[in-house]
């Protein structure tokens, strides 16, 4: 059975294709490069579980296990040829084929009438504030990144900026419609 593709598995394989490294370093590099905006590494355990899956499926190999002075033992991993080829296949599929994803926000919109109109409006206004803050942070990240990174390494931030901008426009319009009473709110759950 082929290894299940995931953004985290793709990120880990990508990192060890750059250079062999241990799990903690992989997690740190994802954070240092701000890739934790697109790859969830909040739970260290998920990194280790994904590494175990990649090892089991022959996509990673143990290069060495070492201990430095007072530090815990660390296992350094490297990509196998099968891992490199699998990574190329995953990247092609992820870039070429839209995935059927189920994010929370569209699900919440589908059941919006569960909340009274004023409560829904308050929640949407909170979302607007959060989106504006995220947009501002991305603008700073992109501007700062342009001083030391090649444009290729900023594409996911620019994509996020476009997505968040579009969502912000949509949510502002929805909040305006709701605040002005332009939405029929007869349905109650």
Topology readout:
Elements: H1 7-18, E1 21-22, H2 23-32, H3 44-56, E2 60-66, E3 74-79, H4 81-96, H5 104-110, H6 117-145, H7 155-179
Antiparallel strand pairs: 1-3, 2-3
Helix pairs in contact: 1-2, 1-3, 1-4, 2-3, 6-7
Report on the structure:
With 189 residues, the chain is mostly helical. Helices cover 59% and strands 8% of the residues. A 3-stranded antiparallel beta sheet has the order 1-3-2. β2 (60-66) and β3 (74-79) form a beta hairpin. It is elongated, with a radius of gyration of 21 Å. The protein starts with 6 loop residues before the first helix and ends in a 10-residue tail after the last helix. The model has no long low-confidence stretch (mean pLDDT 91).
Report a brief summary of the structure.
With 189 residues, the protein is mainly alpha-helical.
Question: Which overall shape is indicated by the principal axes computed on the Cα atoms?
Answer: elongated
Q: What fraction of residues sit in β-strands? A: 5-15%
In spatial order, strands of the major sheet run 1-3-2
The total count of strands amounts to 3
Compressed to H and E, one letter per element, the order equals: HEHHEEHHHH
Whole-number mean pLDDT: 91
Rg, Å, rounded: 21 Å
* N- and C-termini, Cα separation: 44 Å
* Count of separate DSSP helical elements: 7
Q: Which stretches are low in confidence, meaning pLDDT under 50 for 5 or more residues running?
A: none
Sheet of most strands: 3 strands, antiparallel
Portion of residues in helices?
55-70%
Summing up helix and strand content along with how strands pair, one would put the structural category as mainly alpha
């Amino acid at each position: 059975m082929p290894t299940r593709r995931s953004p985290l598995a793709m990120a880990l394989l990508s990192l060890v294709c750059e250079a062999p490294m241990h799990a903690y370093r992989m997690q740190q590099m994802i954070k240092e490069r701000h890739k934790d905006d697109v790859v969830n590494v909040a739970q260290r355990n998920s990194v280790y579980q994904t590494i175990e899956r990649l090892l089991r499926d022959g996509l990673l190999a143990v290069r060495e296990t070492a201990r430095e002075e007072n530090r815990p033992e660390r296992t350094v991993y490297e990509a196998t040829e099968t891992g490199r080829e699998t990574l190329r296949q995953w990247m092609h599929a992820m870039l070429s084929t839209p995935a059927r994803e189920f994010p929370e926000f569209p699900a919440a919109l589908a059941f919006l009438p569960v909340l009274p109109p004023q409560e829904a409006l308050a929640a949407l206004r909170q979302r607007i504030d959060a989106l504006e803050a995220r947009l501002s942070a991305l603008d700073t990240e992109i501007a700062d990144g342009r001083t030391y990174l090649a444009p290729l390494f900023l594409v996911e931030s620019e994509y996020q900026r476009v997505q968040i901008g579009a969502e912000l426009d949509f949510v502002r319009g929805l909040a305006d419609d709701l605040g002005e009473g332009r939405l029929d709110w007869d349905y109650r759950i």
